[in-house]
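Plastid lipid-associated protein/fibrillin conserved domain-containing protein: structure tokens wanted.
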Amino acid sequence: MASSASLLHASTLAPASSRPLPRRGLPPSQLDLRPSRRHHGVSVSLAASSSAASPEVEKEPSSPSTPPPGESSAVAESVKVLKEAAKTRKVPAPEVLAALAKIKKAKLDTSAFFETLGGTESPGRTWKLIFTAQGSKLGKGSYFPVTAVQRFDAAGQRIENGVYLGRAGSLSFEGRLSWKKKILAFVFERVRLKLGPLGPLEIPIGGGGDVGREPSTKDPFFLWFYVDEEVAVAQGKGGGTAFWCRCKRVD
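Answer:
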């Protein structure tokens, strides 16, 4: 992946056949993952813009049909692969790509995704970017080479995306977001640049017409396929897919 702001485009989820109610996935164990360096702030996105606020969170109703037992089992196994990859970064790329493909094909209930992703109060929750894949067919992919973290704030309708380079500095973008069903669109409002020991330089971005406008699919966005308390999977407007693991905010 070339830069901190790129990738991801929406795609259509394959329909799930209607079968008897399966067992819901086991609750995940908490991953003790933190950003690899101590950096100020948090954030980064695979898309190139920012986020916007909407007055209400529109939740998608539960899927009309429940995934059949075979599909539910495949998703659980795929999530297990992603969690191992997040912990060790040693799971081979083809296995990660296969896990992402299975999750993308599944039809899951997305009604709790936004709250799980962004929490119930500000400043929200932070997620470290682990792996990115190119194109909707997931032909190639790799572990993200630098520390990139995103903060999603469901209560405040805010997003922050940043790349952190240790003592060399950091580059982050902040803005507002909106959520509609499983699509999180965003518009950035300012950029912060920090070089070495110098204090951050903050620069407003975006035109005057963007002020107060709710982000839509005309803006950068993520289409979410899976979110639990430990990992999340999404595709961006550019068509690439990625997964993140939950991490702690570092001030």
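Helices lie at 69-88, 93-105, 113-118. DSSP finds three helices and ten strands in the chain.

Cheers.
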